[in-house]
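Session log. Operator J.P. requested a structure for one protein chain; no other inputs attached. Running the standard single-chain path with token output.
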Amino acid sequence: MALLEITDLRKSFTAPDGGKHEVVRIARFALEAKAQLALSGPSGTGKTTFLHLIAGILAPDAGRLVLDGVEMSALPESARDRLRATSIGYIFQTFNLLQGFTVLENVLLGMSFGPGADRAHAEALLRRVGLGERLNHFPRQLSTGQQQRVAVARALANRPKLVLADEPTGNLDTANARASLALIREACTENGAALLLVSHDPAVLASFESHASLAELNAASRPNGGAL
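Structure written below.
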């Protein structure tokens, strides 16, 4: 059985004119345990919405989303939050670090929503991402690349089975982007986590053996095969 299985997933938002704008409509999607898949698509094609649905941040309008045997789409918001805390790591494009807390505290706080804070494990993760000497620094005292490394450590802190990465190289220069992407993929491999990464960067997509287009997944789900 796949780690992630999606069937007939749909999500719409209300447009300014009051009409419905369908952003996600996917008939079938699956991701195997420990697999690494890149999902492509330009801005506005629903990539972030798709990840938010998988993470349980958003509830779908219709469809089934099963993560590790649990139908997340059928859970209330509080239960989705608990499942996300224990089974999913999320690397946001804007990092979403808490500016008033240190590097170590950011990771420990992320762990507190799951099985509980484990200082030794948090410190080991931060050393793994090259921040062993920055544990007591605040995010504002770090470079953009270092801040993303904190986000990677936080995403892996609860030993998730699935890591979601939303345009993780979008705010980085070319050299840092390559290093960050390698770190994310290596860390997922080392921790036995599957990786679903979305990007519009051709260089990032080319580095994955497996990649798909969200626009094509959406189009394939429509009766006439039309795009969004």
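Operator note: Residues 224-228 have pLDDT under 50 and may be disordered.
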